Amino acid sequence: MAVSLPRPRRFDVRLAFGSLIGGLTFWGLGLGTRPSTEAYVLLPGRWAVLVPLLVLTGCELLRRTAPRVALLIGTGAILMDVVTQGNLVSVLMYTDLLYSAVLYGPPASAHRIPRITGLLSVAGAVVPFAVWREPEALLIGVVTGLVAFGPAATGLIVRNHRDAADAARLRAEQTALLAEMDRAQAITSERARMARELHDMVANHLSAIAIHSTAALSLDEPKTSREALSVIRENSVEGLAEMRRLIGILRDSSGDTEPVAAPTLDGLGALVDGARTNGLDVTLDAVYDTVPAPVELAAYRIVQESLTNALKHASPGRVTVALAQRDGVLTVTVASPFGDRDGPRAPGSGAGLVGMRERVALLDGAFEAGPVESPEPSGGKIWVVRATLPVSEGDSQ
């Protein structure tokens, strides 16, 4: 089974070629790292220097693609270089192999190699000094540290900085992704809020316009038509004003329309009066203390939407609106007659109940809507909308 060697990087090829040219130049000039007369030079011939030089040149080609293999083979080559006259370029290539093994090798090797070379540097200083008792023997450890421990430690420092930079880049990308997700969620939430506000502010007026315009077209009575047209005009003006106020909320500060203040529970009386004008028989029973603004807005919108639905869908009869605050909870209840009809008096989008449910869910409340048996002696069914909105302890009765 053939083993395919990894393809060397272009920079590594250039580095290996340049090192080979430099090593051959030193060899051609007869510049060795030690004289051939040294006792430990076991291969004094000039040609013996070329063997480790060529092997280390080949290892340089693998310095990034296979750093551990290159270091293992290179260690054998540098040991052979020690018993020859030596070549400075061979030593430099070996230091680069140590550096590359720590920088590009696996994490285990990156921490193991500096420890091993550090121990070898200490041993290279202590053992010769203990044997020869000469201060010059300490230079062996110094040279070993420069050749082995120095490149390995440098590689570890560079690797740590590179890993830290990669981690910081990853954190930045994750932060950007989370920010984008938050932005998209905020946009979605804001669009949902705008849709609820638009529906609640305008649907009531448009429903009244649709109902009374139908009455004006179907009845050939001047008095009835005139009354219907008066209601249509009133709701048209109020609906247009509400639209302008909503646009004022969306416009920037350079516009000449100021945003309208959020409606409060104090406006329930006017809201009920408007429903009576539109033809509903409505009663209001509200007992509450000061409540937070979000709860106040949600309660107002729930009553408003419930009255709009009653105007469109309820059977003839009385509609009751009740608000009660006790035990830290504000309960909103709207009941209207429920029975068989040919169809709604005005078309609906089906978003009313969804919007009310969303408002209550945002406040961690409970919401229910549906037909129930009427407690009145006359019997029948009524459509009840009930929302319970939590109120802070300081605002409860």
What does this structure look like?
- The structure is a single chain.
- This protein has about 400 residues and is α+β, with helices and mostly antiparallel strands.
- It has 2 domains: about 10-170, no CATH class; about 265-395, Heat Shock Protein 90 (2-Layer Sandwich), CATH 3.30.565.
- The protein contains 10 helices and 5 strands; from the N terminus they run H-H-H-H-H-H-H-H-E-H-E-E-H-E-E.
- It has helices at about 10-30, 50-60, 65-80, 90-105, 105-130, 140-220, 220-250, 270-275, 295-315, 350-360, and strands at about 280-285, 320-325, 330-340, 365-375, 380-390.
- It has a 5-stranded mixed β-sheet with strand order 1-2-3-5-4, covered by helices on one side.
- Helix 4 (about 90-105) packs across helix 5.
- It is rod-shaped.
Strand and helix map with partners:
Layout: H1 10-28, H2 50-60, H3 67-82, H4 88-104, H5 107-132, H6 138-218, H7 222-250, H8 268-277, E1 281-287, H9 293-313, E2 318-326, E3 329-338, H10 352-362, E4 366-373, E5 381-390
Parallel strand pairs: 1-2
Antiparallel strand pairs: 2-3, 3-5, 4-5
Helix pairs in contact: 1-2, 1-4, 2-3, 2-4, 3-4, 4-5, 4-6, 5-6, 6-7, 6-9, 8-9, 9-10
Helical segment count? 10
Strand content: 5-15%
Global structural class: alpha+beta
How many discrete domains?
2
Can you tell me the overall shape?
rod-shaped
Number of strands: 5
Distance between the termini: 86 Å
Trace the largest sheet across and list its strands.
1-2-3-5-4
Radius of gyration: 44 Å
User: Which runs of at least 5 residues are low in confidence (pLDDT < 50)?
Assistant: 253-259, 393-397
Sheet with the most strands? Answer: 5 strands, mixed
Give helix and strand order, one letter per element, not per position.
HHHHHHHHEHEEHEE
